[in-house]
């Protein structure tokens, strides 16, 4: 199910390809377009972009350079490389640089829709992980062990103090005590 609040940036110097991709997704997503890597990065600086559909061969800086900048500065933005180059080495390089996927320009529309949907779902999951991680970090030193006994609280206090040390600690106890 598409989400009109999601924004896709198409970065390709081929106007026909930009128009084709935009036509596939304009009903379901907000579409932005750029004709070069520099223009794409400018849009990323001022707009809230969720997904970039990026050509490898661009005038000025290459698609791989744009991909590197995106992954360094906009880590939650997913990138799908769309290129006329069908060499395995190029696809492997794209994936190593952090692209979600690599697809050639002779793509099937349904495959492209599925890739975009999956990339945006992955982005949503990554955002949820960050949100939950922040919530856990905000909880700080709240008591994670449930139990009212004084002995249990004493042990928890000792563990809290020892946890701050950068030394290896061996905790021993009677069998069956946890």
Plain-language structure description:
There is one protein chain. The chain has 178 residues and is α/β, with parallel strands linked by helices. It has six helices and five strands. The mean pLDDT is 86. 48% of the residues lie in helices and 13% in strands. The protein has a five-stranded parallel sheet with strand order 2-1-3-4-5, sandwiched between helices. It has a single domain, classed as Rossmann fold (3-Layer(aba) Sandwich). The protein has helices at 15-25, 37-46, 63-73, 88-96, 109-139, 150-163, and strands at 7-11, 30-34, 51-54, 78-83, 101-104.
Helix content: 40-55%
Computed structural class:
alpha/beta
Q: What's the gyration radius in Å?
A: 24 Å
Q: Quickly count the domains.
A: 1
CATH class: Alpha Beta
Q: Mind describing the biggest β-sheet?
A: 5 strands, parallel
Number of helices: 6
User: What is the CATH architecture term?
Assistant: 3-Layer(aba) Sandwich
Shape, principal axes of CA atoms? elongated
The tally of strands reads 5
CATH topology: Rossmann fold
Give unreliable regions as ranges.
none
Order of helices and strands: EHEHEHEHEHH
Strand content: 5-15%
Q: Largest beta sheet: what is the strand line-up?
A: 2-1-3-4-5
What is the fourth-level CATH superfamily?
Response regulator
Whole-number mean pLDDT: 86
The first-to-last residue Cα distance is: 47 Å
